[in-house]
From TrEMBL:
This is Arrestin C-terminal-like domain-containing protein. One of its GO terms (cellular component) is cytoplasm. It comes from Paramecium primaurelia. Residues 209-343 form the Arrestin C-terminal-like domain. It comes from the Eukaryota. One of its GO terms (biological process) is protein transport. Pfam families: Arrestin_C (PF02752).
Length: 378
């Protein structure tokens, strides 16, 4: 069965501070004497980390811990966007896995959730298919959309945006129809940040009087979309060194950090997302302004830096120097922070079978009602 409420956005991703524009299509199944149609824009940001520590367990005394606190049916996992009125005792504090008992610790990082509400229509409506245009304002300081869930489900983070259309029957005091859709944003990238660090340079003096190596690198920009190719211009001066450079390693590192409400930072990911090896050079040689390309993976998540989540990327260029003693080798590395933007594909709406009538002469120009609530994390 097709949905009775469909959303169509003019842009797949909106820049923070600009307006989210589009329309929603609504199929009213029957005449309604009095309804209220409300559109809501809501933000949600949090991080969750679940940790387990094994503790002693006496099988002969199963009542040593209240049964309602022990999860026996399945492994404990945190859930995403849990209901607001979830009972506290459903949050199991222990996990009994066979004869092993684990203490479960939950670490939450929360941020205030902003809710914008606008009444589109209030009155009687006849059965039919309707179209409502909307214009939703966003704030300049809103971060990019982000979602992460570890393979075991025990680490999750989200910075999300959603619009919801709800149709209430004021006579019956109930919600007749409701539908939500995700909205994607890109944070504003300040020009000062974009051009602050596009170049790196290092002069490294080798051990045992083996001379020095100079390495420099320059990027045209440090703002990219997933799947983009990074144009790298680099120079290597090995004329003052007595040792060859075996290879040039180029890589992009992703570091994801969750921050809980006690300001404790936990490293969730610290990995190389792409790496290539380029030709080295002999002692006494140099390379000047060599241009090469490094292609980024298409599945990268957007860069983010908030009070609860940090998702950062670093471009690194390293000269691997042949050393007489491996343990005396010191990395010759240039590092530049880069910014990854959110990327989505624009979705089309299938209106086959729809017969649009008057749109009730409504169009959302601004959200007059603004409220702030604390994000609820169970």
């Amino acid at each position: 069965m097709s949905k009775s409420i469909l959303f169509q956005f003019n842009d797949a991703v909106t820049l923070a501070g600009e307006q989210i524009t589009g329309c929603c299509y609504v199929r009213i199944p029957q005449d309604m004497p009095k309804v209220q149609i409300v559109l809501t824009f809501q933000t949600k940001e949090y991080s969750k980390v679940l940790e387990k520590k094994q503790i002693p367990y006496d099988e002969s005394n199963p009542q040593m811990i209240p049964d309602k606190l022990i999860e026996k049916q399945m492994q404990v996992q945190i859930t995403l966007d849990s209901p607001l009125k979830q009972l506290k005792y459903t949050q199991k504090k222990y996990e009994l896995n066979g004869n092993l008992l684990y203490r479960v610790f939950r670490h939450y990082g929360t941020h205030e959730s902003f809710i914008y509400t606008q009444e589109l229509y209030n009155g009687s409506v006849k059965a039919g298919d309707y179209k409502f245009n909307f214009v939703i304002p966003t704030q300049f300081n809103m971060p990019s959309s982000f979602y992460y869930k570890s393979a075991d489900g025990q680490k999750q983070g989200k910075c999300g945006y959603m619009i919801t259309l709800k149709i209430d029957s004021t006579e019956e005091a109930r919600t007749v129809m409701m539908e939500s859709a995700d909205v994607y944003l890109n944070s504003r990238f300040k020009e000062s940040e974009q051009f602050r660090q596009l170049e790196g340079n290092i002069v490294h003096f080798l051990c045992l009087n083996s001379g020095a190596v100079e390495l420099s690198v320059k990027l045209k920009t440090n703002k990219f979309f997933p799947g983009d190719k990074i144009s790298v211009e680099y120079s290597v001066d090995n004329t003052r060194s007595q040792r060859p450079i075996n290879r040039i390693e180029v890589r992009v590192i992703n570091k994801l950090i969750f921050i809980d409400n006690d300001d404790v930072e936990r490293i969730i990911e610290d990995q190389v997302v792409v790496q290539q090896n380029w030709d080295g050079l002999l002692a006494g040689q140099s390379k000047d302004r060599i241009v090469s390309l490094l292609e980024l993976p298409k599945e990268l998540k957007a860069s983010l830096k908030t009070n609860t989540i940090k998702n950062q990327y670093y471009f690194q260029l390293e000269a691997i120097v042949d050393s007489f003693l491996t343990w005396l080798s010191v990395p010759v590395v240039c590092q530049i922070p880069i910014h990854i933007q959110e990327q989505q594909t624009k979705q089309s709406v299938n209106l086959d079978g729809w017969k649009l009538v008057s749109n009730l002469n409504v169009s959302v120009n601004e959200f007059s009602n603004v409220s702030v609530q604390q994000s609820y994390i169970p």
